């Protein structure tokens, strides 16, 4: 697949940017790593960039030293459920990324899967199970119904959240209860979906003023066979191939799916859609991230580089667009 060239010229006006990272979620350390990478890329691109935590000092700090635009490198609920963005909207502070309402929708994986399926993108069958239902109706009976409906193997993961925290592949019925309990540590609702064996792809989408466009897909090949938290953030445990080693028609369908997801959920500026390609070449939607990781092992920077761009230039262009929306 050939990716259409995009204009990443950030312009000449010096911009003061604040990069939000950290927060108080399970993904704090990942967020700080992303934020540090973003600041370094922006400084190299010639911007005045500062890293700030999402804490009680944030709003007074922004009032005292206003930013032209904010880049949100927060992961987990702090940066992805729309709450911080809603506060920035109240304060009239422009930011890069999707609006609060779209973030809330994307953050809820079962709801996002429903919207994406309605938009014509295939996604594995699933069941969303709140902890109260799991407890009140009896774990054994409920899990028996899930296995009867979806079969084995299964993918068990929190219904909201990122960085693959709590995500587990379950191949044996006897392992399902423990996986569910483990998942409930990360949230009140667990998403159980049919496991699709195949090639996992991450397709990043950016909108640099000419509509959302997909960057080259990143193929993810974890040594363990499952792209969990350890595989994702431990260098050497996962191989990445950009562009992905798939046929051109599969790459194009993956790109089309990612753009459809971006549009259907009302996302803006940037996103990363996780897909899996089965043995027949069918592309399945897994989930979408409105605040893609930007660490040394993250897929968004890989895709930007594969498209022939510099990360700092792309981020600078997005910040200029956000500032212009003020």
List the main descriptive attributes of the protein structure presented here.
326 residues; alpha+beta; Rossmann fold; Dna Ligase, domain 1; 3 domains; 39% helix
The DSSP helix count reads 13
* CATH uppermost class of the largest domain: Alpha Beta
Q: Looking at the structure, what is the overall shape?
A: globular
State the domain count.
3
Proportion of residues in extended strands: 15-25%
Q: Specify the CATH architecture of the largest domain.
A: 3-Layer(aba) Sandwich
**Main pleated sheet:** 6 strands, antiparallel
Order of helices and strands: EHEHEHHEHHEHHEEHEEEEHEHEEHH
Mean pLDDT: 91
Q: Give the class from helix and strand content and strand pairing.
A: alpha+beta
Number of strands: 14
CATH topology label of the largest domain: Rossmann fold
Q: How many angstroms separate the termini?
A: 36 Å
Q: What percent of the residues sit in helical stretches (DSSP H or I)?
A: 25-40%
Task: Work out the radius of gyration.
Answer: 19 Å
Parts with pLDDT < 50 across at least 5 consecutive residues: none
Tell me what you see in this structure.
This protein is of the alpha+beta class and 326 residues long. It has three domains: 1-97 and 308-325, Rossmann fold, CATH 3.40.50; 104-122 and 197-290, 2-Layer Sandwich (D-amino Acid Aminotransferase, Chain A, domain 1), CATH 3.30.470; 126-194, 2-Layer Sandwich (Dna Ligase, domain 1). The chain is 39% helix and 22% strand. The strands form three sheets. Strands 9, 10, 11, 12, 13 and 14 form a six-stranded antiparallel β-sheet that branches. Strands 2-1-3-4 form a four-stranded parallel β-sheet, with helices on one face. A hairpin with a 6-residue loop joins strand 9 and strand 10 (213-214). Helix 1 (28-44) packs across helix 13 (311-324). It is globular, with a radius of gyration of 19 Å. 51% of the residues are buried. The model has no long low-confidence stretch (mean pLDDT 91).
């Amino acid at each position: 697949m050939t990716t259409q060239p995009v204009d990443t010229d950030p312009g000449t006006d010096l911009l003061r940017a604040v990069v939000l990272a950290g927060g108080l979620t399970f993904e704090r350390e990942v967020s700080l790593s992303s934020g540090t990478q973003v600041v370094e890329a922006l400084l190299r691109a010639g911007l005045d960039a500062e890293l700030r935590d999402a804490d009680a000092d944030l709003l007074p700090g922004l009032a005292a030293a206003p930013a032209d635009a904010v880049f949100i490198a927060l992961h987990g609920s702090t940066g992805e459920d729309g709450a911080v963005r809603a506060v920035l909207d109240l304060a009239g502070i422009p930011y890069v990324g999707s609006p609060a309402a779209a973030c809330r929708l994307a953050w809820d994986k079962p709801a996002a899967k429903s919207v994406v399926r309605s938009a014509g993108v295939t996604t594995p069958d699933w069941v969303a199970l709140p902890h109260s239902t799991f407890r009140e109706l009896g774990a054994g009976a409920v899990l028996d119904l899930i296995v009867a409906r979806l079969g084995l193997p299964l993918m068990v993961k929190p219904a909201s959240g990122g960085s693959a925290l709590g995500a587990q592949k379950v191949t044996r019925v006897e392992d399902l209860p423990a996986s569910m309990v483990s998942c409930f540590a990360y949230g009140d609702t667990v998403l159980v979906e049919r496991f699709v064996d195949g090639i996992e792809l991450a397709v990043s989408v950016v909108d640099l003023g000419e509509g959302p466009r997909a960057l080259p897909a990143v193929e993810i090949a974890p040594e363990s066979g499952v792209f969990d938290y350890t595989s994702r953030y431990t260098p050497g445990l996962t191989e990445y191939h950009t562009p992905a080693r798939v046929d051109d028609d599969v790459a194009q369908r993956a790109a089309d799916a990612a753009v459809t997801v971006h549009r259907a959920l009302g996302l803006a500026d940037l996103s990363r859609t996780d897909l899996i390609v089965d043995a027949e070449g069918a592309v399945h939607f897994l989930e979408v991230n409105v605040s893609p990781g930007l660490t040394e092992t993250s897929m968004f920077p890989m895709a930007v580089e594969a498209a022939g761009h510099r990360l700092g230039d792309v981020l600078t262009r997005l910040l200029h667009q956000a500032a212009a929306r003020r």
